[in-house]
TrEMBL record:
Organismal lineage: Eukaryota, Metazoa, Ecdysozoa, Arthropoda, Hexapoda
Organism: Psylliodes chrysocephalus
One annotated GO biological process: mitochondrial respiratory chain complex IV assembly
Pfam short name (any one): Pet100
Family to which the UniProt record says this protein belongs: Belongs to the PET100 family.
Classification via PANTHER family: PROTEIN PET100 HOMOLOG, MITOCHONDRIAL
Keyword terms: Membrane, Mitochondrion, Transit peptide, Transmembrane, Transmembrane helix
Residues in the signal sequence: none
Localization terms from the record: Membrane; Mitochondrion membrane
Transmembrane segments: none
UniProt protein name: Protein PET100 homolog, mitochondrial
GO CC, any one term: mitochondrial inner membrane
InterPro entries: Pet100
Topological relation to the membrane, as annotated: Single-pass membrane protein
Lineage: superkingdom: Eukaryota
Length: 75
């Protein structure tokens, strides 16, 4: 069995280790770099071709909605 000094040392280690890890990994420069990289990975910047494709899809949906309204008005 250990003495009281061993118990104090273990308790200091138990408290210091998580606090030190929290301090190290929550530095703003590491966190900001990680967040920016993850956002760029999940949501890459849109290209011009992608925007044109989205516009074409919206135009087709708009035309389909207009056709649907005309059909409903005719009935």
């Amino acid at each position: 069995m250990g003495t009281w000094s061993l118990e104090v040392a273990k308790m200091a280690l138990y408290i210091t280790f998580p606090v030190a890890l929290f301090h190290y990994f929550n530095q703003p420069k590491y966190f900001e770099e990680w967040v920016v990289n993850k956002k760029r990975e999940l949501f890459p910047p849109e290209s011009q071709a992608h925007r044109e494709f989205e516009k074409a899809i919206q135009e087709i949906k708009r035309q389909q909605n207009l056709d649907l309204v005309k059909d409903l008005e005719a009935k």
